[in-house]
Amino acid sequence: MSIEAILRGTPVWVWVLLVYLLSRGVKAMKGGTAPLSRLAIVPAVFAGWGLLHLVKEPAAGWNTGLAWVGGAVLGIAIGVLLARRSRLTVDRAQKTVTLPGSIVPLVLILLTFASKFWLGVELAITHAGVDSLYPVLDGLVSGLVAGIFAGRFLVYCLAFRPGSPASFGERV
C-alpha cells in the first residue's frame, strides 16, 4: 500500500486530533498557568482514545486489555516521576497550576501519534486477528501514554491537598 493511499484512507478526525494535540504540545513548551480542569483535557483524550480503540477493535481481546492496564500502571509511575521533577507550583486559592515550559508533552504526543498511526495502518492492512501482536502493542502504547499523562495529572491534583507542598521539583 502506498503512502498516498494510507494518507487518503486516514479519517479526517485523525488529522483534526493531531492538530489539536500539536497545539497543546507547542503550548506546553512555553509553560504557563492553567486551571486544573484544563490540564485534565489531554489525559482524558489519550485515555478515551485508547479505551475506545479497545472497545471498537475487533482484534482486541483480553490480552490487549491486559496490555493496556499494564501500560497504564507503568505510565502512571513514569508520569508521577516526571511531574514531581517539573518544578510545578499550585495556587490553591485560584485552583491553578503553573508549569515551566517543557518539550516532554510534545515529544510524548508525537511519539504516541506516530506509533498509534503506524499500528492503526498495520491493523488495517493485515486484518489482524485476536492472536496478532499488533492489537496488544497498540493496547500497551495506549495504556502507557494515557498513564503518563494521568500520572502527571495525579500529581497536580495531589498538590492541592492541604499539607502538600505548593511546589515540586525545586532543587535544594
From TrEMBL:
Alphabetical keyword list: Membrane, Transmembrane, Transmembrane helix
Record keyword NAD present: no
Transmembrane segments: 6-23, 35-54, 66-84, 96-119, 139-159
A Pfam family: DUF6622
Entry protein name: DUF1453 domain-containing protein
Organism listed in the record: Caballeronia sordidicola (Burkholderia sordidicola)
